[in-house]
């Protein structure tokens, strides 16, 4: 055996089943990272072939053409050509093609062949092709293409045997490299037609099942109804399965913190461990259940082929506010939490559309805003009936959700008007065949998302939580102090300083102080207000706190604070994930800046107008 | 006629893809995706809002194209056989 290792690159059109093949080959032995400087995922795995050779497999981003239109297509081309900095040229390229869709996929195979590198063609989804009566003359295809052709069924364990045997053997001879110009490019289609005519017989162009499902799923009325039902179920599941686990984790860490330090004398060190570290860990891990539940559904919808259908139905609506149909699912996820929403924008291939979606996602009313809304609405909004049917409190809550959505639409529209790049960005989206999602592919996808969140964000969020703890704990209250300890801390000073900025919004210094811990996690604003108003007892049920608030500030201030929470740049975890997903502090600054301005103006107007009216 | 004007369900074949402006990447991508002379196409579904985007069947593939994208594709209607 000449070499003990071999580097293989998997390439192919989107939806060719390449990633399922990659998962089947490498199992869990994968490393996911980003290519340097860009947010394109680099997935590498390895496996041992029967010969004992170790094969490194690189799963390159799906590509329709080497005439690259996006950063991920660019990377695929550069890696295949062996010119990507820091990436060794692959010893062998495995080009994956969907056997049910060769008219589209063979053209890219021909493009890959022209690179003049060793190539093996994997005809994937052979099971689906046989079911649909597609007959492929593989020996003839192999002869005409001049490269080894193997059949694969990525979703079955024994479906990749032939491919492993092929890549484990001799490396095939490379075809001579050919120039890439417009004429030869146009010629590729003619070659594909000739190949298809000689080697493939297909009883009908599409699967009957797809046609039948699409008649319903894309129907102008039923399609939207089905989409609403799907989304409704996703949200039910997030609140039924994700939320209770989140609460359990939060409570668990408080309990752990309290018990782990029971032997310690009360003091700054104990406080650091209980409130800073365990509190911070509780916050970080508390996001995990919601993220995993949401990603479970996103992955299932994506694998099944429904996601692009949803994008099809809503594209027009999203385009009108400067987004794309693909923005819809990430934005909807952001109603539970902006973090999985922003992580979910990876399914948007166009960088401009993706950034626009990331910037508006935090405006969706996430679940962490609810405790604050519930407290303030309960304390200030009377339970009056409006027009005999509507509950006033419910109306205000609805208005806050609507404010988030309208705000996002407004911001999207303004961004569309402001940006320098006015060029047309295409939808050009393939609607793949419906497929049953495979447990393995969903599990691997979930594991990756969970690890990305934990590995890349725990440090940042924990660090910031400890910083927040420090600010609200030091310096300690002097001996004999009467006010709550936070008054004397740095947070207290900052809050009193902020009060001059926030006075036009009707915020007193207590609210200003509570905004500082709210930056760590919105829901802590409730606890912080309880602390500054020195309300004893169970702050979580909010009854005592509600009375204290009602006695201390006006309706105008309360409405203004509600509006502030709807728009304000909060939750540093969201800002941390924006930094991670866009690889840019500039985008964090833009998010923070525009949300601050929008929140300030909206709260100012709310306070001033309400003050005039009441 | 333009693909964006083709009625839903009626068969047609592609004549060519026109560049909307010089070196139009969207037109080039459409050609790469198989919108080339002689290829049969059909509009299989139309978006529910503003009749946009269009779902185009070409070969075994279905692509969602916005109207502005489909307008680049020139087609000739075919009489159903």
Automatic annotation (TrEMBL), chain A:
Protein name: Ferrous iron transport protein B
Organism this protein belongs to: Dyella halodurans
Keyword Acetylation in annotation: no
UniProt-listed PANTHER family: FE(2+) TRANSPORTER FEOB (PTHR43185:SF1), FERROUS IRON TRANSPORT PROTEIN B (PTHR43185)
Keyword Hydrolase annotated: no
Superkingdom of the source species: Bacteria
Annotated FeoB-type G domain residues: 5-173
Entry keywords, A to Z: Membrane, Transmembrane, Transmembrane helix
Residue stretches spanning the membrane: 221-242, 248-266, 278-301, 321-343, 355-381, 393-415, 457-476, 548-567, 588-609
Family matches, as InterPro entries: Fe2_transport_prot_B_C (IPR011640), FeoB_GTPase (IPR050860), G_FEOB_dom (IPR030389), Gate_dom (IPR011642), GTP-bd (IPR006073), P-loop_NTPase (IPR027417)
TrEMBL record, chain B:
Key words, A-Z: Iron
Signal peptide start and end residues: none
Alphabetical list of SMART domains matching this protein: FeoA
Any Pfam family hit: FeoA
Domain Ferrous iron transporter FeoA-like: from-to ranges: 1-77
Keyword Iron: yes
InterPro entries registered for this protein in UniProt: Fe-transptr_FeoA-like, FeoA, FeoA_core_dom, Transcriptional_repressor_C
Protein name, entry field: Ferrous iron transport protein A
UniProt source species: Dyella halodurans
């Amino acid at each position: 055996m000449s070499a003990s290792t071999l580097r293989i690159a998997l390439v192919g059109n989107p939806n060719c089943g390449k990633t399922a093949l990659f998962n089947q080959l490498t199992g869990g032995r994968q490393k996911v990272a980003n290519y340097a400087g860009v947010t394109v995922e680099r997935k590498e795995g390895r496996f041992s072939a029967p010969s004992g050779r170790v094969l490194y497999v690189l799963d390159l981003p799906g590509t329709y053409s080497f005439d690259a239109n996006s950063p991920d297509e660019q990377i695929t081309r550069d890696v295949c050509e062996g010119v990507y900095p820091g990436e060794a040229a692959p010893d062998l390229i495995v080009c994956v093609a969907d056997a049910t869709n060769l008219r589209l996929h063979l053209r890219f195979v021909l493009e890959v062949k022209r690179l003049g590198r060793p190539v093996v063609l994997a005809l994937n989804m052979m099971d689906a092709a046989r079911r649909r009566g597609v007959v492929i003359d593989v020996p003839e295809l192999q002869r005409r293409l001049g490269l080894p052709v193997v059949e694969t069924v990525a979703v079955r364990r024994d479906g990749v045997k032939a491919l492993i045997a092929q890549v484990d053997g001799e490396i095939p001879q490379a075809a001579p490299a050919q120039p890439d110009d417009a004429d030869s490019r146009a010629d590729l289609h003619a070659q594909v037609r000739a190949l298809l005519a000689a080697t493939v017989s297909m009883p009908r162009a599409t699967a009957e099942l797809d046609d039948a499902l699409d008649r319903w799923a894309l129907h102008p009325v039923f399609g939207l109804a089905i989409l609403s039902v799907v989304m409704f179920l996703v949200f039910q599941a997030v609140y039924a399965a994700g939320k209770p686990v989140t609460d359990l984790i939060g409570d668990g860490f408080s309990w752990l913190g309290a018990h782990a330090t029971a032997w310690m004398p009360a003091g700054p060190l104990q406080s650091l461990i209980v409130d800073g570290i365990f509190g911070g860990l509780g916050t970080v891990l508390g996001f995990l259940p919601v993220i995993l539940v949401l990603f479970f559904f996103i992955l299932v919808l994506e694998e099944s082929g429904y996601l692009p259908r949803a994008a099809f139905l809503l594209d027009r609506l999203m385009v009108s506010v400067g987004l794309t149909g693909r923005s819809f699912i990430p934005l909807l996820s952001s109603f539970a939490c902006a973090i999985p929403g922003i992580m979910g924008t990876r399914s948007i291939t166009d960088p401009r559309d993706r950034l626009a979606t990331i910037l508006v996602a935090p405006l969706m009313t996430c679940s962490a805003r609810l405790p604050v809304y519930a407290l303030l609405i309960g304390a200030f909004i009377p339970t009056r009936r409006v027009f005999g049917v509507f509950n006033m409190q419910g109306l205000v809550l609805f208005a806050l959700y609507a404010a988030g959505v309208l705000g996002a639409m407004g911001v999207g529209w303004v961004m569309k008007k402001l940006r320098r790049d006015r060029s047309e960005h295409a939808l050009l989206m393939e609607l793949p065949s419906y497929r049953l999602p495979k447990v393995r592919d969903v599990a691997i996808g979930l594991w990756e998302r969970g690890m990305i969140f934990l590995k890349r964000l725990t440090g940042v969020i924990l660090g910031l939580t400890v910083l927040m703890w420090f600010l609200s704990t030091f310096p300690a209250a002097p001996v004999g102090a009467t006010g709550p300890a936070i008054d004397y801390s740095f947070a207290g000073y900052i809050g009193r300083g902020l009060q001059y900025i926030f006075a036009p919004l009707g915020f007193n210094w207590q609210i200003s102080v509570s905004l500082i811990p709210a930056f760590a996690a919105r829901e802590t604003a409730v606890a912080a207000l309880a602390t500054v108003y020195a309300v004893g007892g169970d702050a979580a049920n909010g009854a005592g706190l509600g009375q204290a608030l009602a006695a201390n500030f006006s309706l105008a201030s309360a409405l203004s604070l509600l509006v502030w929470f709807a728009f304000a740049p909060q939750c540093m975890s969201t800002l941390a994930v924006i930094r991670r997903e866009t690889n840019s502090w500039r985008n964090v600054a833009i998010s923070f800046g525009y949300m601050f301005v929008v929140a300030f103006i909206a709260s100012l107007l709310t306070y001033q107008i309400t003050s005039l009216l009441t | 006629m333009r693909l964006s004007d083709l009625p839903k369900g009626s068969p047609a074949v592609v004549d060519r893809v026109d560049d909307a402006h010089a070196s139009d990447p969207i037109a080039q991508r459409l050609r790469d995706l198989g919108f080339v002379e002689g290829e049969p196409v059909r509009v299989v579904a139309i978006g529910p809002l503003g009749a946009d985007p269009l779902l185009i069947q070409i070969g075994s593939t279905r692509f969602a194209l916005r109207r502005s994208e489909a307008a680049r594709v020139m087609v000739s209607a075919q009489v159903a056989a």
